[in-house]
From TrEMBL:
The protein's name in its UniProt record: Phosphoesterase, putative
PANTHER family: BIFUNCTIONAL OLIGORIBONUCLEASE AND PAP PHOSPHATASE NRNA (PTHR47618)
InterPro entries assigned to the protein according to its UniProt record, in alphabetical order: DDH_dom, DHH_sf, DHHA1_dom, NAD(P)-bd_dom_sf, Oligoribo/pAp-PDE_c-di-AMP_PDE, RCK_N
GO biological processes: potassium ion transport
GO terms for MF: nucleic acid binding
Organism: Pyrococcus abyssi (strain GE5 / Orsay)
Residue intervals of the RCK N-terminal domain: 1-124
Amino acid sequence: MRVLVLGGGVLGRAIAEALMGEFDVTVVEKDSIRAQTLAESGLQVVQGDFSYTATLLKAHIEKADLIIITTSDIQTIAKTLHVIKSNNKNASTLVILPEDKSIEDIESILKEEYEMEVKVDYIINPRTAIIKAVVETVEKIGEKKNAFKLLQKLNEIKERTDSLLIVMHDNPDPDSMASASALAVIAQSVGLRPQIVYGGDITHHQNRAMVNVLGMEFKKVLRGSYEIKRYDAIAIVDAQPNGNITILDDDDLKRVEIIVDHHQILQNLREKLSPNCFVDIRTDVNATSSIMVEYLKALEIPITDTLATALFYGMYIDTKKFSKLSRVDISAIEFLTGKVNYELLDKIEFPDISTETAEILARAILNRKMYKNVIISNVGFIANRDAIAEAADFLLRLEGITTVLVFGIVDDRIEISARTRDVRVNIGKVMKEAFGEIGSGGGHAQMGGARIPLGIFKLAKDKTSLLRLVEEAITEKFLEALGMKEVT
């Protein structure tokens, strides 16, 4: 690309030197002594007044692709733009806007003095550019500060023990598994031996594929077990105690040293933790994997293509296929570019579906009940909890449906997943309002879940009666929280 830099002062020279080598750059400078100095430094220079046609013709303006105007005089800028567009209509123009002046001021001069309407292609306001650079620098400082605080905490743990227990939520999803794996890598960098555990099941076919394809090592443990008690330090990722973790008791909470999450902080959580616990909970970020990428980047810890793939997929799922992104999410995606193994990613995203999952999807379709544009479906007694969420995702794709709730009975509890595409509904708040008093419920604006102990329904005579009682209670509470009457 051929670039003309008009003005060889401090700014013009710095721009030309920065572009030299990558682009064909010519500087146009009026002062003869300065022009000679620029030429002696190795720059291509044309000496003359760049606001005159003859000078720009000498600089071969007809061949220029981009012309950068560095002067701060607004009259000179307007005159130069007139000359440029009179001799090369196709060249792009970049104007460094003088302080306290607007592009409208320049356009006004062009119209009044030259009877010409000229569109400036690119504008840089120095004050705005400085503010942006300062903000970006502050953000980078913040990223490093968070990462180094985590590193400091891990080093503190290393001084008294050589191991770290990393706890995911009971039924870990891709974001939870990827985040735990990333924290394990960071812990290993200071000499700790991490063990990643969970208390429920990994049943979603894509989640199982992720574990198998990427060779992840997780261990299922029970509440109160030696596998938990033997660790002096515990870290929690993408989850919070007394929220979606059931394997930790009150004594275990005293040993929680690290919590990293992107969900809203649970009530009274900080009161239950050590005051020295490292807590990084950011509700403005859409995936815990994004926070982990920020740590890895700031600490300059190398990552394998399998970890990069896991983190990328964790973000992909929790950001609803990258449809909802914060600054931290975007920065993480940029960092992972070129590190992801897309062949592995394809195997994770499109694994074979199990017969059990297919049967539950069929039940969800057959048992669906419609209330205007809302579907509620009872899939009965099942073992695969994650299939409930898959069924909710599937039913939301039905024409005319905006909100879906699917529930089933797993062991001694009722598991519920809800989805919505109605912008007027925050399904996480709906789930909390509907089921928070009899169990636990919450989530995000478009995706939510709940869990209810089966104890309150145990008076039912048989399974059929139990299912009927559960369905009536859940339907009533959910529709009430949605502000709907039970009308089919």
